[in-house]
Amino acid sequence: MSKTAFLYCFIALCVSSAAGSLFAQETVMLEGKVVNDSIEHEYLHILNLSLQKGTVTRENGDFTIPVRSGDTLYISAVQFKHQELVVSAEIVNRKYLEVKLEPEVTELEDVQISNIELNGRLGDDMNRIKLEKPFDPAEAGLPVYKGPILTQEERRLYTATHSGAGIIPVDAVINAISGRTKMLKEQVRISNMERRVQKARNLVSDTTYIRQLQIPARYIDDFAHYVYFDKPEALAIAATQNPLSILEMLLKQAPAYLQHKSEEGVEVNFKDKDGQ
């Protein structure tokens, strides 16, 4: 056996062993809290993308969700950037996590004030200003990606499967052997499914969920995941965008969902007339 082949076998065994210990982790119930001061803590959504489990925060920002070491948590809130974090062994041992979300800020481009003398006549002033041609990477001989815009999960998968130089992409081989590529592919699948679920959820107004389906506002997203997530038949009905077909399906699913929550020990009721 050549030295190169032996090296690859050695790396594969080491990485495979490490991956095996990672995926055999025990599931624990993680207590967490969103600690932002300038946010309505109640009803934020916490998803475990690896286990496909979700929950919502309580009024004080607390939440509880099952996790394993290496799982990916997804936290979303209106006017805040969604956050993804990997559950470390330390978090699992501590069984507690505090999360602070970053505000979603729309930044405007800087306005450069020049020393050009303007007289206030638009036609004359426009001729005085010299506009710089934007940098074109293609003209500079640089590679230009012309495919669709990749999501964060798709970029991670692309990096894991295309990294490395030479005839044999070493990083890509290691990622494939260790199971990282498989894990990233699953994250891409879940991320794409999540977008489809949210699109289907928004086909029906919150008022319809609350008043006709008797789903309290805080459980609407959870109900949407119950109906649509990994359910090709339900997603196919949503794709028709036929209001009557969608409502008919949701009316059948709502009682089953409420019964499901009851069996989980969750009391789903209305605090007020708006189903909050």
Overall body shape: globular
Name given to the CATH architecture of one domain: Sandwich
Count of helices?
A: 10
Order of strands in the sheet with the most strands? 3-2-5-6
Protein name: Carboxypeptidase-like regulatory domain-containing protein
Organism: Leeuwenhoekiella parthenopeia
Keywords: Signal
Describe it for me?
The protein is of the alpha+beta class and 276 residues long. Among the domains are: 25-99, Sandwich (Immunoglobulin-like), CATH 2.60.40.10; 154-189, no CATH class; 202-263, no CATH class. Helix content is 44%, strand content 14%. It is built from 10 helices and 7 strands. It has helices at 3-23, 89-94, 122-128, 152-162, 170-178, 180-201, 206-212, 220-228, 232-240, 243-263; strands at residues 28-34, 45-48, 53-56, 62-67, 72-77, 80-86, 96-99. The strands form 2 sheets. It has a 4-stranded antiparallel sheet with strand order 3-2-5-6, with no helix packed on it. It has a 3-stranded mixed sheet with strand order 4-1-7. Helix 6 (180-201) packs across helix 8 (220-228). The longest helix is centred in the last third of the chain and has 22 residues, at 180-201. It is globular and about 60 Å long. 20% of the residues are buried.
